[in-house]
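User: Predict the complex.
Assistant: Input components as received:
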Amino acid sequence: MLYGKLKEYRAVITFPSLTEALGAEKVLTRFDCPFASIPTPRSLRSGCNTSLCFPLERKEIVDEVIDDGVVLTGAYEAREDGFFSLVW
Amino acid sequence: MIYLDNAATTWPKPKQVVEAIEEALVTKMGNAGRGGHGAAMKMARLIYQTREDLCVLFGTDDPKRVVFTQNATHALNQALFGLLQPGDHVITSSIEHNAVARPLFALKNRGVEVSEIPGTLGGEFDLEAYDKAFQPNTKLVVTLHASNVTGTLLPIRETGQIAHEHGALYLLDAAQTAGVFSIDLGRLDVDLLAFPGHKGLLGPQGTGGLIFKPGIHLEPLIYGGTGSLSEEDRQPDFLPDALESGTLNGPGIAGLGAGVRYILDQGIDRIRVREQELCRKLWNGLREIPEVKLYGSDMVERRSPIVAFNIGELDSVETAFALEEEAEIVARAGLHCAAHAHRMLGTLSQGVVRFSPSHFTSEEELETVLQVVRKVASEYSTSLV
């Protein structure tokens, strides 16, 4: 079941640690991409209990996050029937 | 009170530091990394911002490699015990603070070989002897940047270069210089940097940190909750979590961040030049008092902002007590947790009185200080007759 801003945004990235998530927040802010921190969905558990969701139409932003040195454990599209690897 | 003990901890702090701590206490209620709720995230973001500010100040770019500790001693212990194993060899100077000397003594008892490079006044770190001290098992060189007794600067650029030529790492103790002298990790051969938050960086006590370059693995000094990988018994291996078990000093780190931003805003060179001008005034004034003996180089520009002296053979603690009694002048006397440095200076018995002004110290305060030292010195002279 989708919750919070995930229902609206539909793209989510997960991290090994909170420090990585905080680094990603900085990148998303710098590129003026709206985002929300949400509890990591149980099926995506990755070490860090906080994930970031953002609008699916901004999915290319993942490149910027990675280029900045942030370590991700996954990038997903959230659909009603589950999470699917994000293709960008 | 005239506060001249900034080498122990800086005071006063910029108002921005006080405000940042208050704001953290009042509005950033949570525990960073413990829960993903808004309160925890507020504190987490604030701590992350301080990591970034420190990266800017020290010329590095990976906030994850900024590990917060309680103080520089804690950071040095993390580096030394995290790196050195029995059979390893480490090289150090002869003017180290106990923050390095004592962990090395303990490590020696665990089978780590330690070489101390002998020093003399004016030649505190003999680069030639240092170069010859390397062994095939030399893993690390550790020195302070400036002596906490005399302020004398060690040649850290050359020390790092030589360490790297021999394939060893260089750990720098910047207790007296962080926030006062430029330390650019992008240009220096320094692999690990230990710093206090409450001295030159103008943050509150209970803060400090260790920054180290990629490729270096440190075993944790303490193990425990990190807010990450909670389902596993093993300690996370990613930074900074691997080395930051337990709740961080969030409000303190907020204050530290504000101190760093204040320095970046004011300009580190401006702050240092101001402090060196004050030291020059102290040095020149003290030099004119016949009973006063000064220690270290007369080039105050080549020292961290410290002026060390004694009045004749008067015990340094008595001198400091007299200064406080006379005019509430606060200075540190004794051995300054640095017996090795005093052994070299020949002041193990008498200690020295240490004046360490900050850029907040006024010229008028120093006029008063010099006047009172003259009075105490004169009384000492009279007592000898």
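Chain B is about 40% helix and 15% strand.
Let me know if you want any component modeled separately.
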